[in-house]
Structures are given as structure tokens and as C-alpha cells.
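#structure-requests
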Amino acid sequence: MALARTRRGESGMNYWPGFVDALSTLILGIIFLLTVFVVVQFYLQQEVAGKDTALNRLNAQIAQLTELLGLEKSGKANLEDQLAQLRATLATAENERDRLKSAAESAGAGAAAAQGKASELAGQLEGEKRISARALAQVEVLNQQIAALRRQLSALEQTLDAAEKKDKESQTRITELGQRLNLALAERVNELKRYRSDFFGKLREILGDRSDVRVVGDRFVLQSEVFFDTGRADLRPEGRAELDSVAVALLELEKKIPADLAWVLRVDGHTDVRPITGLFRSNWDLSAARAIAVVQYLIGKGVSPQRLVAAGFGEFQPIDVGRTEDSYRRNRRIEFKLTER
């Protein structure tokens, strides 16, 4: 390898080390960007997952506190009902005492009995007052507990609002990163389309206006008969001449496209639907062998192997579904497609 490099250096300037360094820098830069994006996305996903867990826990606490608050309210209502009943009983007892006092004053004979009855009612009244005081004390305790629960609910709602706000901010950041990534990818695709148009235009200029050369969508199509004999994958002399032109255009394209733009020229082999006999087991084997032969020839002409891909499609991607000889001829083809790697 060192000897080959020395000889190339003696014959002229060698661009290969610079090209390898540029390609290595491009690959490392892409790997670094992808690593940063994956780490950021993982961190954001972990943060969002943690917030979801905290949010669920807070919701469960709010549900429990709401249930306790309902129970406390129910108990308070019961105590208030008992207090109202006690107050009604107290009022009735006071009325009865007043009535008995009046009766005692008007009837001297029943004064002693009335006095005893009044004393009994007075005792009952004192008992009812004590019960009422305890009920009021319980109501006050309940009010304090309800106030404490309301403060806890307020604190939980504030925590929940903060968590929801942070979650929305995280989602916004993820959306912005995705939009920026999509925009960068779209710019790369548009840039590659421009170079593809230049490449196809150069090929059209070199090969001329021929019936066996077509541009179909984003692919440059040549008939297999230009390169190969029937059922064979050995390049014909005429095919090598055509590939020399393709190699020239491709080498010029390598100089124009920026080093940070990842691209390859995909060479696709296609056959017609008719069964094959001879050296190859199937049309798929034949199409793959033809694509590989084209790629190997281009490499021999100086095209970087990292910029080439060979693919065989057999008879499964026809451009003409007819069963005529002309349809079969159209389907037997070699396609060149400039695409992202």
C-alpha cells in the first residue's frame, strides 16, 4: 500500500488521504450529532416520565384528601344537626320551666311539686348545655381540620400546576428539536436533488440523445443490452465505453458535493419476467451480478467504493407490465440513482 502511494505521489498530487480525512470527519460529525440528539431525547423522555409519575402520585393524594374532606364535612353536618336539636330541646325546656313557675305562683298547693319539676328541668338544661358545649368544641376542631386540608389542597394544586408547566416546556423543547432536525434533513435532500440534476444533465450531455437512455423520475435508466449479452453478467466493450462516461461524470460530482453531505450512487439491476437458464439460478441472481459488475468497473475507474451501492431486483420492479418483446426489452435495464446514504 505504501509503495502504491509512493508511485501515485511521484506521478502527481494524491488527493486520496485528504478525501479519506474529510470522509472520516464527516462520519464522526454525523455520529456526534446523532449521539447528542439521542442523549437529549433520552433525557427529555426520562424527565417527562418522572413528571408523569409525580403527577399521578399527586392526583392520588388529592383524591384521598378530597375523600377525607367529604367525610369531615359530613361529620360536621351531623354535629350541626345535633346542635340544632339540642337547642330546640333547650328552648322547649325553658318554656316548660317558665310555665311551671307561673303555675307554681298561681297554685300554692302545687308549689312544691312545681319547684321539684323546675329543679329537674334545670338539671336537664345544664346537661344539655354541657352537651352543646362539647358539640361546639367538636365543630371548631372540624373547622380547623378542614382549613388544614384546604391548605394542603392548595399546596398540591400549586405543585401540580408547576409540574404541568414544566411538562409543557419539555414537550415544546422536544417539538422544536424535531422541527429543527426535519428542516436540516429537508435542506440536505434539496441540496442532493440539485446535485442529482447536475449529474443527470452531465450524463445526458455525454451520452447524447439516444433511445436506449432515459431519465425516469429520480433515476437514470440504460437498457441492459448496452452492457451485457443475453443471460450474461460480463460487460461488453460497448458497455465499458458507456461506463467510462458515467465514471467521468461521477468523479466530477465527487469534487462538487460538500464533504459533509452523505450520498451514494445506487446501481440497480433489473430483468424481464421470463425464466432464465444457464449460469444463474434465477433472474434475481442475474440482476444482482450485473449490478455488481457495473459497480466493480466504476471502482476500477477511480470512483470511491464508499459512494457506490449494488442492488438486484430481478423481475419484481417492472416499468412495463406488458407481455410483448418491446415490454421485455424495456424491463431489462440498469438504473443509476443518486440518493442519501
